[in-house]
Design a protein that fits this description.
This protein is of the alpha+beta class. It is built from three helices and six strands, in the order H-E-E-E-E-E-H-H-E. It is 29% helix and 21% strand. The protein has a two-stranded antiparallel ribbon. A two-stranded antiparallel sheet has the order 3-4. A two-stranded antiparallel sheet has the order 5-6. A hairpin with an 8-residue loop joins strand 3 and strand 4. Helix 2 runs antiparallel to helix 3. The model has no long low-confidence stretch (mean pLDDT 86).
Amino acid sequence: MRLLESVGYSQHVSGPTHNNGHTLNLVTTHGVGIQNLSIRDLAVSDHSAIVFELLIPTAIKPTAHCIKTRSPSSLATVKFMEALSTSAFIQSGSVDVLVDNYNTTLGNILDTLAPVKKK
């Protein structure tokens, strides 16, 4: 049970669920609650039935997703190559400086030719 609890699950059955007195059937939840749990012997199996009410929130707020896209024009590739060939992002310096210059230059060119649009 410690493994279930270590990843945020709760185990709700606390009594025997088998006719030999063992707890073999479990009810585990993560992020929802239950109430009125009962263990019932239905006399059709050596396992008992576990009956409970699941507490589900009535209003679940949808998660907002922001999708970012770029819509380059048909000439954007040509203009991108032209802008890249005239840029001076390759300079002497450490690898970190070169990568930063490269990323900044490419980002600026892309933002000019195909700005980010949010949906």
